[in-house]
Amino acid sequence: MSENNTQMEIRIEHDSLGDKAVPASALWGVQTQRAVENYPVSGMHAHPTMIRATALVKKAAAITNRDTGRLDARIANAIIQAADEVLAGQWHDQFVVDVYQAGAGTSHNMNANEVLANRAIEILGGRRGEYRLVHPNDHVNMAQSTNDTFPTAMRVATVLAINELLPALEALAAAFEERGVAFDDIVKSGRTHLQDATPVRLGQEFAAYGLTLRRDVDRMRHVRETLYELNVGGTAVGTGLNAEPAYITGMARVLGELTGQPFHNATSLTQIAQSMASFVEVSGALRVLATDLTKIANDLRLLASGPATGFYEIVLPAVQPGSSIMPGKVNPSMAEMLNMICFQVLGNDTCVAFAAQAGQLELNVMMPVIIHNVLQSLTILTHGMETFTTRCVTGIQANRERCEEYAFKSASLVTALAPYIGYEASAAIAKEQVATGRDIRDIVREKNLLPEADLAIILEPRAMTEPGIAGQGRTQTPVLGHTSAGG
Questions:
Q1: What is the distance of C-alpha 38 from the center of its chain?
Q2: Which of 9, 60, 71, 477 is 20 to 30 Å from the Cα of 80, by its Cα?
Q3: Exactly one of 25, 42, 323, 484 is catalytic; which is it?
């Protein structure tokens, strides 16, 4: 029950701790107000996807409780309409509890219960706070506990966020694959230990980046499967107290219908509330993705370094001036942005791991910080990859001249000679080339180690970018250990 004080623009609400003033205009109520006052920590509130997921759970509960006959249809329909408004993007500003809050997400759950109750009251013609019409606990939270609704909303939210990330990841993989095709005829020097290595095609490098990301796609799809199992209906400790069997099975079915996702009841309702393993897996897959993206971004920054004093084998799109003091300077800004996102994701994963092991017995009370970090990682990776794809990768150009210059200058070309003249003779040629800067072919000619026609075939850089012995079957010079070339 509430009292309205229009002069002070507050209303007085009551809970088990007593009376509390609530802003008259607020859709939230007394328990949310206590949380706002108790946790003025970060200024960060529930992630929009978590708000939508919570509204989906509350809508599914109203539908299911109506269908079982436990909840009056008029009240249920008002709650459903209120939830639909939240799903449409309304009232998100009424979810005001800080992400660092009481354990298990009770404050977030009550924030949702109160917002939906007050909005349903208005739909039924009442005033905010008139809980005799629609009660946050008795009606919106019917057959529920924070301990089953919050982890269920976590799973729904994470599935929705993964579904948004996957297209962005697939588009980035496709962009690298497309550049791999475009650059497939460009030979360059490979590098290992940041030292010259045997030739590789620029297209091979970019195609490899694409394959790495395709495997990240597969990994994300796999971890998504672990989230479809729900403990909804388990209520406080997974025993299902106050939730009828028809409600438990109905909730999973309705959530599946509302989302188009294959949600189903958990084998053990108790186990799901105890264990945050699925979120550790999701965060771990995001850690792998962030690690892969960091390596790729670092490679692009290195390959584009220069232009006069670096590799300068590729040219990244110029998106903004790179210096406030050096005119004309252009930086690899998009790759730097992606690096920073990835570092944040790695930090988030550490938080998730610590929080997941911090649960006790029938409940993990650290769920709010787990879902905050998982959803933040998914969001920033999704947006970061979308931007990186369109504003960087699709516009990368190759510096063919620089690539081929390095390929022909590298002493590592002597690797192709080793099957013909032996490792020690090849090493001596490489050492002389590094010391003098002379063309390897001139040194071989001077030493009269191979016929001129064979030398050109064996030291052709592109031939070294495919499996096999360079020149085998095309020269008259025997491979060491064989009686004839190609034998």
A1: 32
A2: 9
A3: 323
